[in-house]
Amino acid sequence: MTTRLENLLGAFGVAVNDSMDDAFDEACAVGDSAPAAMILIHENPDTRIEALARYLALSHSGTVRLVDRLSQAGWVARETCEDKRAVVLVLTKTGAKVAERLLEGRRKSLGKALAGLSATDRKVLERVLPQMLNNLVTSREQADHTCRYCDSGACEREGCPLPD
């Protein structure tokens, strides 16, 4: 039987996901994987299609189609790199603004979830959430996928709790 804590945690996960989805739809209504792709390219300069496919858990062809849509929207450009067989994905100026709106929507959504919590309660969450994440995310591949919406600067400042 499910405990109340498990039920609350499940409902919280759904509510956070729905809240972020709403924020993402306002900033970027180009498809389910588009917000994650935009954030990943923003946070990881010199992203290639192969890396994007791994982070998004999409096939190569599915990722190419997604990049085509983002390119048609005027948000992503393909640039050549040293490896002539590959391209680097970069955000256009408009694309960078979209990515910033996506990250801001994420911040607001998560800020709403934390509103009203005391500093002590926030410290407790910051202490227990890494363990909870590590219970679920056990490989680098899973970590890459889990972090697809992350503001990488936060983990660079504080240290990412997920596997390398």
UniProtKB/TrEMBL annotation:
Natural source organism: Dongia sedimenti
Listed InterPro entries: HTH_MarR-typ, MarR/SlyA-like, WH-like_DNA-bd_sf, WH_DNA-bd_sf
SUPFAM superfamilies, alphabetized: Winged helix' DNA-binding domain
Protein name: MarR family transcriptional regulator
Domain HTH marR-type, first and last residues per copy: 2-134
Lineage: Bacteria, Pseudomonadati, Pseudomonadota, Alphaproteobacteria, Rhodospirillales
SMART domains xrefs: HTH_MARR
